[in-house]
Amino acid sequence: MSIAEAGEFGLIARIVARLETGTASLLGPGDDAAVVAAPDRRVVASTDILVDGRHFRRDWSSASDVGHRAAAANLADIAAMGAAPTALLVALCMPADLDPAWAEELAGGLSAEAGLVGAGVVGGDMSSSPTLTVAVTALGDLDGRQPVVRSGARPGDVLALAGRTGHAAAGYTILSRGFRTPKLLVEAHRRPEVPYAAGPAAARAGATSMIDISDGLLQDLGHIAAASAVGIDVDRGAFEIPAQMRDAASALGVDPYAWLLAGGDDHALAATFPAGTALPPGWRTIGRVHEGAGVTVDGRAWQGDKGWDHFR
Amino acid sequence: MSIAEAGEFGLIARIVARLETGTASLLGPGDDAAVVAAPDRRVVASTDILVDGRHFRRDWSSASDVGHRAAAANLADIAAMGAAPTALLVALCMPADLDPAWAEELAGGLSAEAGLVGAGVVGGDMSSSPTLTVAVTALGDLDGRQPVVRSGARPGDVLALAGRTGHAAAGYTILSRGFRTPKLLVEAHRRPEVPYAAGPAAARAGATSMIDISDGLLQDLGHIAAASAVGIDVDRGAFEIPAQMRDAASALGVDPYAWLLAGGDDHALAATFPAGTALPPGWRTIGRVHEGAGVTVDGRAWQGDKGWDHFR
C-alpha cells in the first residue's frame, strides 16, 4: 500500500498511534496546535532538517534509524543550551508512493529517541513531496538556568567535550565505500549516541559557552571562537583513537584525526568552563581558550577539512 | 549567484539580516537554539509545510508571497487555539542553484507576516534539497486562557466564522486556468488575510471549539463534529458571494459555493459558541450544532468535494 492509497487522515492516525507524547505534553497531536508545559516561563526551540539522499540514505538506514537521528540532532541542540528537551514537532514530506510502514517506523524512531529524555512527539504536519524530508522542531525547558550561549567563552577557560566525535563520519565513509562493518562506526552513523544529560549538567557546573557538534568539532568550535572573540586550541593528544576506527582508517587510507576533529553528526557537546571547574561526569578536557582568534590544533592551523557546508 | 556560491553561512547571515525577532524573543538566531518568552508557563506549538509545485508555484507567487503564506498558515493555527503567536522557526530546503535573493525575500515575507501579530522569526535551519520546501513551526502564548480545542462543541451551540472562505481557492482556480484577475481573488491565493485577533477574542468570549479553516470549511468542520461527537449544519444563506467571485465562477463554470464551502487556504477561523453569546467583532453566525454526526449544508449532505487531501 502507498501513502496515496492510505489517505492523509488514515496515515496520520497510524502515525499518531506510534507516538508517546511525553510528560510535558498538555495537548498532543490532533488539534490545530499542541500545548506543552513551559514551567520556566521561557521555551528553548530549535529546528533541524534531514533530506533523503543528503543526510541519510534509505539503503543504509532504516526508517527507525532516520527517526532516531532526526530526533537526536534536535534534542542535542536543546541540550547544548543547557536545557532539558520537552517535546518534538515533526514536518514530514513524503513521496506519494512511499510505503506507509516507513512513515510509521520513522515515527517510532522519533518517539523512542525523544523518550530517552522524557520528551514526546506532540505534533507536526505531513505533505506529499518528490523529496523525502524530515524537519523536526524541538522544545525544551531551562528550569531556571540561564541559557549557555556560544558567546561566553573567556581566555583561560578550559575546553571540554562530552560524547564522541568521528564515529558517525567514519561510519559514513565506510558505508560510502561499500562496507558494512565495523558495526560500532556504521551504527554511529545510523543512530548517534548523544550525551543529553551532559548539557544541563554543564550549565549547572557553570559552563561559559556550549555547542552541539553537528558539522565537525573544529568548525563548530569556530562558531564559539567567533561569537566569543577568543582563540581556541585543541589538544590532539586528548583524543584516543578507538581500535576499530584505527583499523578502518588504515584500511581506507584516511587520517583518523580528520574524522575525530572534522567529522559531524555524532552530536557530542563541546563547552568551555572557567579554569579549575570540577567537570561534571561525562566531560573531559580537550583544550583551552586563549586571547586571539580562530581554532588551532596543538597550536597550529589544521590543514584538513574543518567540516560540513550543507550547500557544498 | 547561486546558494552554492554564497555558501551556507553567508546565506544565513543574509537571511538573518531580513528578520525581526519580535518582542517575545529572548535569544534569536545564531545559537544552537532560540529562547522565547512563555509567560503563561505553557507554549502552544504547530508546524505546517509548504512544498514548491504543490502548495505554491514560483511563477504564480513571489518569494515574499510564499513567506507570507507559510507564516500565515502557522500563525492561524496558533490563533485557532485562542493563543497569541510569539515566534516562528523556519526549516528551509532549497535547490543549490536557487538565487539567494529568493531566500532573502522569503525571509522578508515570513518576518513581515509574523510582524502583523508582534511575533518574529527566532530560528530555523537550511539544507539543500531538490525540492524547495518551507516548513514553519509557530509558537504562541495562552495568557492564562484554556486552549480552545476541537472537541468542545455542544448541541445547541451556534457556529460562527471569522474571516473569508473561498477566496484563495477561487484565486487558485483562476491562476490554474491561465488568468491573472480579478486581483482580489488572485491576491487571496498569494497572501491570505487571516483574522488573527479573532482567535484570542473567541477564547475570551467563551468559544467551545475552534479550528483554522485550511483544507476547506466543510472538511475542517468535520474534524470538530467528529472530535465533539456532534452534528453541524451550515446555513448556506449566511454566505454572500462577492461580485468578483460570482463573475469569475460564472466565467469559469464553477459553483461559487464549492469555493466558499470547500476551498482551503484562506485561514478563516470557525468556532462554536454557547447560544446567546454576544459574538466578538469579526465573527458572524453561519450555522448551528445539533445532536448527531457529520456536517450538512441547509440540512442536507453536501454533494461536492469537501476539501483537500494532501496525498490525493
UniProtKB/TrEMBL annotation, chains A, B:
Mg(2+) 1 binds at T47, D48, D125. Residues 154-244 form the PurM-like C-terminal domain. Mg(2+) 4 binds at D32, S46, D77. Its EC number is 2.7.4.16. Residues 30-140 form the PurM-like N-terminal domain. Substrate binds at H55, D265, W308. This is Thiamine-monophosphate kinase. It holds the Pfam family AIRS_C. ATP binds at G124, D125, R150, S214. The lineage of its organism: Bacteria, Bacillati, Actinomycetota, Actinomycetes, Micromonosporales. The gene is thiL. Mg(2+) 2 binds at D48, D77.
